Amino acid sequence: NMPEALEVISRFYAHESCGQCTPCREGTAWTYNILHRMNHGRGRKGDLEVAARKLMWAPSYPDYLSTEGAW
């Protein structure tokens, strides 16, 4: 299912982030933690909005979604 797939992808990026830029270093971990909580029935009020906000900056950082990094 899509929520579980997003959790797996976010876990990968959180682990594989080079850590050079703050959005990747912090944002991927935040996104993973939020999705993990939601997928395991421990979501908090506002988690969905926070996760969506964190993902909104991803396209503005080329390395985050680069061909080399994504595949």
Structure explained in plain terms:
The chain has four helices and no strands. The chain is mainly α and 71 residues long. Helix 1 (2-16) packs antiparallel against helix 2 (22-39) and helix 2 runs antiparallel to helix 3 (47-56). The longest helix has 18 residues, at 22-39. Mean pLDDT is 76; it is low at 64-71.
Offer a few descriptive terms.
single chain, about 70 residues, mainly alpha, about 65% helix, about 0% strand, globular, disordered C terminus
Shape: globular
Radius of gyration: 12 Å
What proportion of the residues is helical, as a percent range?
55-70%
**Total beta strand runs:** 0
Low-confidence stretches: 64-71
Give the terminus-to-terminus CA distance.
21 Å
Query: Number of DSSP helices?
Result: 4
Average pLDDT, all residues: 76
Strand content: under 5%
Structural class comes to: mainly alpha
Blueprint of the fold:
Blueprint: H1 2-16, H2 22-39, H3 47-56, H4 67-70
Briefly summarize what is shown:
The chain is mostly helical and 71 residues long.
